[in-house]
Amino acid sequence: MTRRPPILFIHGTAGKPAHFAAWALHFEGLGHRCLVPALPGHDPDDPAALDRLTFADFTKAMEEALKALGEPAVVIGYSIGGVIGQVLAASMPVAGLVLVASPPARPYLPGSALAASGLPYAWRVLRGRAFRPSERTLRALLVHDLAPAEQDETVGDFGHEAGRAIRALALGEVRVAAAQIACPVMLVHGARDRVVPLVTATGLARRLKAEFLLVPGRGHWLLAESLAGTIVPHVADWIGRGGAAKPVSSHRPGAEL
Q1: Distance CA 114, CA 229 (A)
Q2: Which end of the chain has less Cβ packing within 10 Å, N or C?
Q3: Percentage, residues of the chain above pLDDT 90
Q4: 217 φ, ψ to 5°?
Q5: Region for residue 242 given its phi and psi (left: phi exceeds 0; alpha: psi -120 to 50; beta: otherwise)
Q6: How confident is the model at residue 225 (pLDDT cuts 50, 70, 90)?
Q7: Which helix (H) or strand (E) holds 206?
Q8: What distance lies between CA 213 and its chain's CA centroid?
Q9: pLDDT bracket for residue 246 (50, 70, 90)
Q10: CA distances from 71 to 23, 24, 84, 177 (A)
Q11: In the Cβ-directed half-sphere of 78, how many Cα atoms lie within 13 Å?
């Protein structure tokens, strides 16, 4: 039997390891060793620490987590966790990279919904202060595609985020060239994502020569428990194939659920 690579999961903005619980359970059942650490200051939620923490602090913590696995791992990153994953893949031995609703590690033009919803936090981000997305913001940007009951269950499960980290992304201080990533890459993206426009994700997939799985009718919160049974088996199949990428056309993703 082929030995299955370990997996490092990296959660997203204002998130926590429990958001990947269903994914980790699935992959552990397949025989993968899984590590699901919290980004510094996130679990427990520590706004005082997040006032000081930077994107570089997050990356360093995940570098240490990757080293602790003792061998090249598959990195699965959601949203900002995907940006961290791109930085890791560009600088360390990585067996594969799965980007779930991830922005590129370079500046991009946000959609109108993100631009409007982000305005209340702009001053804190520019000052490098921690902020907490409101329930209204989470409903507008992340969980708008979910059933009302699942929305209600999800929006209370987020904490604060480091303004310094978000500022670094917004100002283009985090950059990774496609040529720096040599490992196989898979992108999973919702067709109705209001945080990372589909055109941005398609462009990222093309630059990274990645397999691109489109989730029709879904938004940014692809870690919803109701979606795990649909999305995770496709990611597991890709990892099981050794990350063999299918070509991405110039007009649309290479596969749909």
Answers
A1: 28
A2: N
A3: 89
A4: 75, 5
A5: left
A6: very high
A7: helix 198-208
A8: 14
A9: very low
A10: 21, 18, 18, 24
A11: 28
Is 21 buried (19+), middle (13-18) or exposed (0-12) by CB count in 10 A? middle
- Whole-number mean pLDDT of the chain? 93
The per-residue pLDDT for 111 is 83
- CB-based burial label for 115 (10 Å; 0-12, 13-18, 19+): exposed
Structure tokens at 118: 């982000």
| pLDDT above 70 as % of the chain | 94
- What is the per-residue DSSP string for 77-128? EETHHHHHHHHHHHHS--SEEEEESPPPSS-----HHHHHHHGGGHHHHHTT
* Per-residue model confidence (pLDDT) at position 2: 67
Cα–Cα–Cα angle for 244, 222, 151, rounded to 5 degrees? 170
Phi, psi of 188 (to 5 degrees): -120, 125
Contact status, residue 97 vs residue 239, Cβ threshold 8 Å: no
Query: Cα(19)–Cα(158) distance, rounded to whole angstroms?
Result: 10
What is residue 215's predicted lDDT score, i.e. its pLDDT?
Answer: 97
Q: What is the residue extent of each domain of the chain?
A: 7-256
Task: Count CB-CB contacts under 10 A for residue 131.
Answer: 23
Q: pLDDT at residue 3 above 60?
A: yes
Any idea which fold 7-256 has? Rossmann fold (3.40.50)
> pLDDT tens-digit profile of 130-178?
999 999 999 999 999 999 999 999 999 999 999 999 999 999 999 999 9
